[in-house]
Specification:
Radius of gyration: 14 Å
Number of strands: 0
Largest sheet: none
Strand content: under 5%
Number of domains: 1
Low-confidence stretches: none
Distance between the termini: 37 Å
Order of helices and strands: HHHHHHH
Mean pLDDT: 91
Shape: globular
Oligomer: single chain
């Protein structure tokens, strides 16, 4: 196995899946819920978008890409760790997946073990978006 600091996002996604395979359905469900939340609040988010590194159009394309991949490959994502990593952690689409992981890690229903794994593998820094539930974040 590569050292953590030499891994790309796909490698890290595979490591997460290998370490905590029973958490994959919860992670995938959370990503689906976040995509739905983004779509439901799209106009609000676009109106309040202050992204510097990417545009709102780019962000919503990432949301759509990840959501489409989950819908297309869902049953395989739960059991095939390579598919999980390749479909959700490759290229720019990984930005939305990483956003979801960081957000899930601070939720009370995220297991302590998964929170620790996310923080170890991907770090603790969160992407900050304005949402209707938290307008100052």
């Amino acid at each position: 196995m590569k050292p953590l600091n030499k891994m790309d996002n796909v490698d890290k996604g595979r490591l997460l899946a290998d370490l905590l395979p029973l958490e994959l359905p919860k992670i995938i469900r959370y990503i689906e819920d976040e995509a739905e939340q983004m779509r439901s609040n799209e106009q609000f988010i676009r109106t309040h978008w202050a992204g510097v590194l990417c545009t709102d159009d780019f962000w919503f394309s990432l949301v759509a890409n990840v959501d489409n991949r989950i819908r297309k490959c869902e049953s395989r994502l739960h059991t095939k760790h390579g598919w999980f990593a390749d479909q959700l952690f490759d290229g720019y689409d990984a930005l939305f997946t990483l956003y979801c992981l960081q957000e899930y890690a601070i939720k009370t229903d995220c297991s302590h073990q998964l929170t620790q794994a996310i923080h170890l593998i991907f770090g603790e820094a969160r992407l900050i978006l304005t949402t209707p539930d938290n307008p100052k974040n």
